């Protein structure tokens, strides 16, 4: 049927029911209220009329649009076109495209010829893309944590805004370059805008210019912790595999403690820089609760992450050296965390003494450990091997690259039942499961779960595994002899050996294993 459905400014692709639908967009929709994700192909979360204006099919005067439903995809890009800034979305389950629609049969021919006679709309955003792409060599998602406290005051707050604006411009913000957002620290932190809100330098500049001074105590610690935890979510525009950076601007000194915030930021894989301006003078030091505040908060206390400016006046010469630091991808030592940079292999005892119901408890334990990690093609990976006298690779590190798939593969492991040859199983896993990833970027861990005495030697195979760069945790249940467990475990053995009488006790060990992996990971990075 050619009857067009009248829709509102806010009707989304996912609100339509048919594969192809003709709709009528109203006039004078408020452009700034549109949510549009993508370019040419739009995530079905997008406003239909917004997408139609963005792609040049209609103007703000409204009109007929034909909507075609398309499958979902990954990486919808952000492009500014025809007064609408579309946003990045990393993946969505369905999409749509828009072409000029027809209001009725009589108009069909005209409508068609108009839509083809237009300067080809497909090409137009392409040109904007290159200018919009930004500096592709500088990969960074940056939060500027600006000082909005009484310490800095209104006058210097404006100078701070100028400086941040110059840094933003020199970074080369763009869809494929750096993305930035701003958080203001004062009594309470306020996220002024997110990474996803703007992808062009001039919009960012405008947004910075509009920021109002809040005043209050300089609770930088509170703001830093809030930013590390809340700012870099995927839905707020953080991009997978791109360094997360917080640049903290501090006039004088903070009113609260930065140490805990620094720890939280490192745990979340965020690289913290501190730009201290007009640092405390000798006569002010008595008022500073912790003189070492910079060292406590920065990513690494190696000089690279701290930056000093004597005053807010005449700061232009400080812009470029700061930008160069922020674009040094390989120096971002805090991007890798234990959660996103480990391979964990589970070696699971399937011998007859375990029994079907206890075997389920073992799988639950494995799931709960795996669940804590950020499993992805560029993140952490999980593998599992079941053993009796024989070994069976249930899945390898490359088989499943999402957490859901890993957890479902663990649930589907079938209990083998048989004897116990733990030594052989360790050798098998070292060779076949860890062998293919031994030159990869991730740190390797093996968690051995067994409920009894092994028929073969475990000491030799475990030493060989450790020599191959694998850290071994041994987890014993019921009749597993403590000597075997200690012989398998990495040094220091006490903190790598776990034992419980009952299978139900495995659950309490989950946080300890996760903490152990993270501790080893951090120690290896120091």
UniProtKB/TrEMBL annotation:
Keywords attached to this Swiss-Prot or TrEMBL record, sorted alphabetically, are: Disulfide bond, Glycoprotein, Repeat, Secreted, Signal
Q: Which SMART domains match?
A: LCCL (SM00603), VWA (SM00327)
Where is it located?
Secreted
Where the record annotates domain LCCL, the positions are 3-96
Q: Which gene encodes it?
A: Coch
Q: What is its main location?
A: secreted
Recorded protein name is: Cochlin
Q: Which stretches are transmembrane?
A: none
Please report the stretch or stretches of sequence annotated as the VWFA domain: 141-326, 343-513
A GO cellular component annotation here is: extracellular region
InterPro entries, per database record:
ECM_Assembly_Org, LCCL, LCCL_sf, VWF_A, vWFA_dom_sf
The free-text function statement in the UniProt record for this protein reads:
Plays a role in the control of cell shape and motility in the trabecular meshwork.
- GO annotations under biological process? sensory perception of sound
**Positions in coiled-coil regions:** none
Species assigned in the record: Falcunculus frontatus
